[in-house]
């Protein structure tokens, strides 16, 4: 039986944070088996352009069946399964290389947006069933997280392969030790984040067609 590959990516720390929960969570799953699949965890730079290049190289080298990029979203209360990536960089802060693009197109030859090809609502359902706070998110922002999400989906759309690779993005809250430095900010424990990502991987591998279940917001 052939072994499938699931690529999980997290980011290096940014904005003066000593750690990034996305990397702490995904690296804990590196090498883990989920059914007939093995998880490969890799870190991406929090740098416009370089992050997309690094992701594209990983996809080309590993030829994964599923790619789940993960990023920090301080202030969010739940694991946020992103629905859509948009074709714009509009940075509130500079990246780790000092770049701060404003109103830049990510891919001039690309569409305005890409939808995740992960079973996002099934993932939310299964995370909640496992006791992990989760929601469908309608925006991945306009910083490096959305940049990578869009770049990933654009790269997958350009690949000429018989078996389509599924891809998407998950935003996660601060870890408690980060929230302690930001009074009032919500957080989730590392074990909870790891458990949630394990569910996301298993559900993505097992679910061909997403469920139809309410997951929208008024605002």
Quick tags:
single chain, 219 residues, alpha/beta, Aminopeptidase, 7-stranded mixed sheet, two-stranded antiparallel ribbon, 6 helices, 21% strand
Could you characterize the architecture of this molecule?
The chain is of the alpha/beta class. It has a single domain, classed as Aminopeptidase, CATH 3.40.630. The strands form two sheets. A seven-stranded mixed beta sheet has the order 2-3-1-4-9-5-8, with helices on both faces. The N and C termini lie far apart (46 Å). The protein is 30% helix and 21% strand. The model has no long low-confidence stretch (mean pLDDT 96).
- The arrangement of helices and strands along the chain is EHEEHEEEEHEHEHH
Q: What is the CA-CA span between the terminal residues?
A: 46 Å
CATH-defined architecture: 3-Layer(aba) Sandwich
Number of strands: 9
**How many strands, which pairing sense, and closed or not: the largest β-sheet?**
7 strands, mixed
Give the helix/strand class: alpha/beta
Q: Helical proportion?
A: 25-40%
Supply the number of helical segments. Answer: 6
User: What Rg, in angstroms, do the CA atoms define?
Assistant: 16 Å
Q: CATH H level: which superfamily?
A: Peptidase C15, pyroglutamyl peptidase I-like
- Low-confidence runs of at least 5 consecutive residues: none
Shape designation: globular
Q: What would CATH call the class? A: Alpha Beta
The CATH topology comes to: Aminopeptidase
The chain-level mean pLDDT equals 96
């Amino acid at each position: 039986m052939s072994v499938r590959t699931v690529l999980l990516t997290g980011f290096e720390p940014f904005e003066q944070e000593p750690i990034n929960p996305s990397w702490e969570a995904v690296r804990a799953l590196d090498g883990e088996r989920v059914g007939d699949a093995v998880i490969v965890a890799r870190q991406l730079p929090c740098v416009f352009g370089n992050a997309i290049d690094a992701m594209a190289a990983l996809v080309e080298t590993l030829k994964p069946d599923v790619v789940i990029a993960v990023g920090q979203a301080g202030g969010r209360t739940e694991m946020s399964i992103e629905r859509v990536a948009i074709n714009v960089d509009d940075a509130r802060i500079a990246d780790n290389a000092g770049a701060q693009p404003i109103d830049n197109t990510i891919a001039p030859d690309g569409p305005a947006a890409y939808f995740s090809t992960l079973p996002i609502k099934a993932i939310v359902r299964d995370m909640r069933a496992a006791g992990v706070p989760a929601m469908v998110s309608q925006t991945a922002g306009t910083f490096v997280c959305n940049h990578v999400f869009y770049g990933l989906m654009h790269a997958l759309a350009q690949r000429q392969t018989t078996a389509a690779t599924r891809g998407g993005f998950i935003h996660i809250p601060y870890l408690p030790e980060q929230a302690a430095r930001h009074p009032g900010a919500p957080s989730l424990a590392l074990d909870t984040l790891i458990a949630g990502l394990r569910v996301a991987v298993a559900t993505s591998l097992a679910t061909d067609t997403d469920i139809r279940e309410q997951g929208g917001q008024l605002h």
